[in-house]
Amino acid sequence: MPKINLSKPLIQGSSSIIAPIYWQFLKDLSQPRQAQDRVKNKIIQKLNKTVYGSQLNIKNREDWQQIPIIDYDTIEPWIKQQQQQPSASILTPEKIHFWESTSGSTGAKKNIPYTTSLLGSFSNMFCIWAYDLIKYGPCFSTGKTYLCISPEIAQGTQGTDDSAYISPYLRWFLTRFLLRVQGRFSTVEDFRWTLACVLLEAADLEIFSLWSPSFLTTQLDFIQANNQQLYETLKHRMSCDRRQRLLEPEIPWGELWPELKLISCWDRQYAADSAQTLKHYFPKVFVQGKGLLATEAPMTIPLLQSNGFVPLLNQVVFEFLDPQHQLHSLTELELGVTYELIISQLGGLSRYKIGDRVQVSHWYLNTPCLNFVGRGEQVSDLVGEKLTIEFVRKCFNQLGYLQRGFCCLVPVMGNPPYYCLLLEQSQEDSQTIIEKLENILQQSFHYQKARQFNQLGQLQVIIDPQVTQYLQTNKRSGDCKYPILLTKPLDSK
């Protein structure tokens, strides 16, 4: 008796449940000013119930400009106070379900409170994205999905996947569609092996959802390099035909996952090359670029009908700082201008400088679509490592490099990309420098993850009295003033 696939009717049924969220969002895109005003009102209502907000003398939306524009360093004392008094309304009047970490300007962790409202914003974003794909995207049959997991290696804790950022009810519903990688892992190779087995067993896999596309390309490299062992291990867990594909000199990836229809990943800036590689590996699969999303908040979302990335304007207030430091609202933007993004979200962060820069690509339903054009000028971010000038300066100071003449950390595009330290002089040999600097750079957990998973290659060092000649420039050498960290990568060639 043939096996009945209940997933397709379940997918279609669930789409009708989340449809109102999608259509309300489209209505809000047609009336961006009103949508933003409603979110402002919600934020002000929450602020007025907190210790932080009581000091600002905010009564209504007309007082919005009295809320100070902040960065993490400014708000950190309040966050620490909130952590010490979890039940008090310091930054938010809502229950904090958990704290999520991301990297700070000095490499230390930034701790972001996740409240019911903030989880609701992420869930809202997910529902809009899912409905848009079901209605206008590929025809999904199984819904089987691998959501990228970032395991903690050799730290005794289980990693989390993207589903941690959505509401418990939605997460419960999605469980039947998700591939899980169970267990704790002592090495990256252990995780890679387990993940390879889980993925290869899933002949009905339809969706990869990940961040940096290099996470997947390096996983595929691992499968290719270990194809013989995987062939033997999965003898009775894969069909003969699919298992035979593992032995080919260049594995035909699309034949390993014949049901694969969507890869969701970064595809802009320095991720473009890796995303192009995935398109080459899976020519029949829709590779969709991810919108702008941070630990602090969901910001933009790809909509197929819009041909761009629209702001999640009914969950987050967007403000934009132009190069002349003039502030603009979402409805006051112009083409061709690079803006620094300032967000206010429902979890306790108001008028927060997120560090991302955007440009308007076009308009959709009266709302500007926003292209991510990079992090702030002080940040180098090839695969999500987010190295800042402040953090690199701290590392150099700790190692005494700033007292040894010219030194500069340079991102280099390669396969994989890597960083190269340029020094005029040193009493230490290159290998000693590499070991010391790698050790201290990995205090930044995003850099550590990128190194662990081979998304970044090992640091390299060049010691040469004429080292500045390695930096391509049209200026005379005497006119060049290089920072200690370049944020625009050089080509390895």
Essential attributes:
3 domains, single chain, 493 residues, four-stranded parallel beta sheet, alpha/beta, 21 strands, globular
Fold and architecture overview:
This protein has a five-stranded antiparallel sheet with strand order 12-11-13-14-15. The chain has a four-stranded parallel sheet with strand order 3-6-7-8, covered by helices on one side. The protein has a four-stranded mixed sheet with strand order 20-19-18-21, with helices on one face. The protein has helices spanning 7-30, 32-47, 51-54, 72-84, 116-136, 168-174, 188-201, 213-225, 227-233, 240-245, 253-256, 272-281, 389-399, 430-441, 445-452, and strands spanning 96-103, 109-115, 145-147, 149-150, 160-161, 207-209, 262-265, 286-289, 300-303, 308-311, 317-321, 327-329, 339-344, 352-364, 367-375, 379-380, 387-388, 407-413, 418-423, 460-463, 490-491. It has 15 helices and 21 strands. It folds into three domains: 7-118 and 292-375, no CATH class; 141-260, no CATH class; 379-491. With 493 residues, the chain is an alpha/beta fold.
Q: Sheet bearing the most strands, described? A: 5 strands, antiparallel
| Terminal Cα span | 59 Å
Unreliably modeled segments:
473-480
Strand content: 15-25%
Helix run count: 15
Shape: globular
Number of strands: 21
The tally of structural domains comes to: 3
Structural class: alpha/beta
Largest sheet strand order: 12-11-13-14-15
How much helical structure, as a percent, in the residues? Answer: 25-40%
Round the mean pLDDT to the nearest integer and report it. Answer: 86
Nearest-angstrom radius of gyration?
24 Å
